[in-house]
Amino acid sequence: MRSTSGRIGGGIVLVSLLVGACLSEREKDDAAGAEALAQPEAVFRDARDANEVVLAVRTQLERAFGKANVQLPGTRAPGLTLGNFNVVGSKVAPHVELLSAGGVLGEVPGARAEIALPVRADGAFRLRDEQSGMTIDVGLAGATASAREESNGYVVYRSGYVNGAHIVHRPTSQGTEDYVFFPEKLPETPELRYDLGLGEGVAGLRLVDRTLEMLDAKGAPRLRMTQPYAVDGDGRRLAINVAIEGCAYDASGVAPWGRPTVDPGAKHCSVRLSWDASAKAPLVVDPEWILSTNMNHARMNATATQMQNGRVFVFGGDTGEGSSALDAPEIYDPETNSWATTTPAQKPRANHQAVLTPDGVVVISGRTSPSVMRYNPQNASWSQLPQLSTARSRFTATFIPTKGILVTGGFDVNSGNAVTNSTQFLAATPNAQWDGGGEMAHKRAGHTATLLKNGLVLVTGGFGGDDLESPTTAELFDVSAMAPDSPWSSAGNMASAHANHAAARLADGRVVVMGGIFPMTQFSKNVDIFDPATKQWTAGPPMMTGRAYFAAAMPQGLDGIVVMGGQVQGANLPEPSNLVEAFAPGNNAWKALPNMSSARAYFAAEALSNGRILAIGGVIPADNTPGTSELLACTSDEDCSAETYCAKDQSCKPRKPNGETCDLRPAEADGTDCFAKECHVCNSGNCVDGFCCDTPCSGQCESCNGSAVGAQAGLCAPVVGVPVTDTLSQRDACKGDGLCGGACNGINRESCTYPEGNNCRSSCEEGKFQALACDGQGSCAAVAFEQACSPYACDEAGKQCMTTCTQTTDNTTKSGCDDETSVCNVDGQCISRPTKCIDDNSMELADGSVQSCGAFRCQKGACLSVCDTAYDCATDPAGKVTYVCDESRKCVEAQFENTVESVTGCSASQSPNSSRLGWLAALAIAGAFAARRQRARA
What we know:
It is built from six helices and 69 strands. The chain is mostly beta strands. Strands 5, 6, 7, 8, 10, 11, 12, 13, 14, 17 and 18 form an eleven-stranded antiparallel β-sheet that branches. A six-stranded antiparallel β-sheet has the order 2-3-4-9-16-15, with no helix packed on it. The protein has a four-stranded antiparallel β-sheet with strand order 19-20-21-22, with no helix packed on it. A hairpin with a 5-residue loop joins strand 38 and strand 39.
């Protein structure tokens, strides 16, 4: 279990193998759990099924964390995909939310894990980061062949380890929490060993503060085994020591990004988890294997400080387990969306303050400790600074550049937590000590302190104890007037009371004071605005929701304020809120934004260098424990202010001036600017040819691409020649090509200009010759000249009409005439074809008279005038005359005697079949002539 994070039953978006529990099952489990707490030993005897194993683990965890902090199996933990906010880190406590300027923030791409659990306990499970591809295989050494079972969102291996220990997995969209539960007998050696297989993408290992990180080639943590712990039979939470054997690793607390990784030197390592030998059964050991898009620890009342390199240093806070505070800092890298562990501090902190100085992050006081520490990010070391004269909580700390650190008010722990008006100042000089910063005119706790552009510090509102004027008053601190005069002066009174509120400085120097609670039962939505130039207060437009203990941040590079979460008035009692709204000073109005995925109060928020806002930790409604942090991002321009657009990285960025590059394609289409469609990148609203343009510049022959038209980028100019039609342009190319193709002439900006005339092509088809010209629309389609070829035909190339012809005697060779209406005569000219052939020997002329073809055959409506074979000659139906084709290609009458002898050389009397034999002889003679002619031609 993770305290308020991976706690048992903290159901997130579960991957394969998981099922949800119905309400009746939850009620049964709850009743069983109550009975088990009354008689816990009964739960730890032999588990009869997977459900009883899960119940036993839950009961054991409740011994350390209390029932309120251990959710039922299968229940849905807060912080998951509610409204338009999607969790990037999915465990209950330390997942991260990013809010963009005035925007709802959606799921950050890639923050999902693939988890595959084995069918038997002695197999390895596989964890893969979908975004980077990094993969590890993890197996518990000594596990048995116990088969996998499922129970209300958990995977159980009963007696899956030595001594009858059970193994329980809680898979989530971020990885798996891995419980090993010893119900009665502990192992002889108080340790577990995991075999860690380093798969794709693992370039190095890093072990810092008992947290194991798997690094990619650039040093970014992608997968992690979070800081493990155990809960024993006395209900003690025990620290687990972590050791790596068989692989080299990095043990430096310095942020890993950009540093050379340490080569593991092997593909398999042994990860040893050991605990205090005094632990008693029953015992639960709880490592968790997840993506590094999450914090390692749940937190409320923590601080978040953006360092000079743009990364965020998160420190301290309450865990929600009693009054325990954290000494473990973590660092967030916006570029890789990953968290890394760094060196723990000497002392834990909560309700403290942290400021960024040129030497690092200074952590000041908090609750019972007046000590001051400094974290140096260069070497990840901590050092002690002079301590305050008294411990404080609910106070303010402000770094004044080149001057020092101012601490004001709060609850004075040394005076019984009385509200104080005392201040202290630590000068930015070597060996400086805290000096009295003078007394404010009013006692204050839960107030704000804002550094003005002129170097003064504006302190507003706060709870004053017996000083009832504090919530409406404001004071100015001037470090230059510390001696001999008082550095404090009145800044006038606000129209409304503010305590446990927020304040933010606008780009023009004015300070907006918002919300709060005063009296202690009334949540305020009132807004007061201070103008340092006139030292006057004016009432601003009220927020849409009254709230206190909320966070406000100003996205970097933008002029606006985003307000998130906080305590609001519920139906009966105050409750944490997930409401978000933004103030736009340009129109002096508030705009409601989609809700955060988790309601939260007492959390930290920091504006990042990429335009987003990181909201961290806080209290969630279910059990008032440290809630989630979330990574939020805009999903469309509607989520951003009027002066910004939703960029590809899902942050709201300022719209661009004319001449800057732009790309309206969404991220999914490889665009470089927009996350989604309908993105408004440019101030002018015109993104043309990849540049923000002064006009819509939509003409086919104009462009805003200066290099393409020889003009200044961002100014619409006419085009000469080919239109600009690259990937980012929305224009069509000119139609046509060759003689008829269009082009831009530099005058007509609306469309291409096309030529007319120009004999662009001639053709001859189906007996008709055409000469074509350009039609003025880019096509060679206008008919300039047309003529029928008849009685001739088109040439074989289809270009022109024939002017001569050749007589042919077959049906396949073209003569050059229109064979339907004409025929080629002996002079090579086409003449009109007679109406038709009556038979093989005669034809009918156009006037209806009949003409004999003589010795030639009638073919294709005309009498042949030459022959190639006897078949081109006429036939005598009566059989009296036979024609053959002679060597001069003339049809002549065949000469032969009417006896067989004349053919064969024999003498015989004529028989009844002598006539048929005569025809056969004639055919033979004709064939001989034809063969001799063919030989002669060859």
